[in-house]
Amino acid sequence: MNILKAHDSLLLDLDGTVWEGGQPLQCVVDVINSCGVPAVYVTNNASRSPQAVSEMLREIGLDADAEHVVTSAQAALVLMGAEIPAGSKVLIIGADSFRALARDAGYEVVNSADDKPAAVLQGMDKSVGWAQLSEAAYAINNGAKFYASNLDTSLPTERGFAVGNGALVGAVAAATGVEPISAGKPEPAMFAYAAKKVGSKKPLAVGDRLNTDIAGGNAAAMDTFHVLTGVSGELELIEAPVEHRPTFVGAGFHELSLPTAVAKPSAQGDFRARVDGYDIVLQGGNSKSTSIQALRTVLEVAWAMPEPPRYIQPRSEFAEKAVAAWR
To answer: What SS3 state is found at 107?
Structure first.
């Protein structure tokens, strides 16, 4: 059975998985439009409203509406609602859409720590600078609860990896000594909420970042599929702790059509891997072997070791070629 047929929904990360800088990654649109199961877009990026995200998805050819988008800003407000009652004053460090969601949830949004907000919520906004971060610090030092939409330290763009919300949150945490309560991935709530939206019993979480997308799907007891099109590359996979290890590994979206047994870590492509002291020796392969086949071969052995391997030792022409393509 192939991966898509084994699941009844796709819970999809956006940046580095579906698109990069708003441009669709290879095969993504065709696969989603033809997969035959509902897709829900689960994003840690709190800088856009669900409506804005769905409009961007439609612009690249995907049939998506706001009801099939779940953002970490929404999750943060749900999380805060368990402690901070509607009607309370809150300081939002983030996008206008985040403020609008807070108002819709019944909160009074303020702009200054002098207004004595009950909570500070921080989400990604490219215009955030020293003044806003300092306002958050003043409020938190005066007793406001501190919530973050997500803690992603980097953000994939068409030029590479830019500063993410987690890095900006880190500045406030360093200034106050207060760590935020994070609502987004890798917490499982967003995944459970997304699956419930489409009545999914066997969802597949798809993402490019091990410590958020994959860890979150794993925490929600879901199957996970890691694509090598974004943040986490081959070497990070080899060293991944148990909670960050995906069920399936693919070079890209097109490999969602693979049989489940092939996409799992296992010896394939005529490669062979074995432990040699603290290292893994990779041998074999042939002219048609791929770097992803070499990776799955190595992962099966690496993940059975008590500690990550020190080095991967390629011992054939094809192994050397495969390992050279890893990052």
So the answer is: coil
Q: Is the pLDDT of residue 248 over 80?
A: yes
- 152 in active site: no
pLDDT band at 319 (very low <50, low <70, confident <90, very high): very high
Task: Quote the pLDDT of residue 76.
Answer: 93
Long-range contact set of residues 279-282: C-beta below 8 Å, sequence gap at least 24: 279/309, 279/310, 279/311, 279/312, 279/313, 280/305, 280/309, 280/311, 280/312, 280/313, 281/313, 281/315, 282/312, 282/313, 282/314, 282/315, 282/316, 282/319, 282/322, 282/323
Structure tokens at 316: 């054939």
Which residue type sits at 144?
A
As given in the structure block, the two tokens for residue 180 are 């935020």
Give per-residue pLDDT as tens, 123-161.
999 999 999 999 999 999 999 999 999 998 988 777 888
Q: Which residues contact 306 (CB under 8 A, 6 or more apart)?
A: none
Q: The whole model's pTM is what?
A: 0.86
Which residue is catalytic, options 8, 15, 96, 115?
Answer: 15
Average pLDDT, the chain: 96
Cα–Cα nearest to 41, from 322, 51, 98, 183:
51
Residue 276 is a catalytic residue:
no
For residue 44, what pLDDT is reported? 86
| Alpha helical stretches, state H, the chain | 28-34, 50-59, 72-81, 96-104, 130-141, 165-176, 189-197, 215-219, 234-238, 260-263, 291-302, 317-324
Active-site annotation holder among 8, 13, 114, 223: 13
Beta bridge partners of 23: 20
Q: Which of 279, 262, 281 is nearest to 319 (CA)?
A: 281
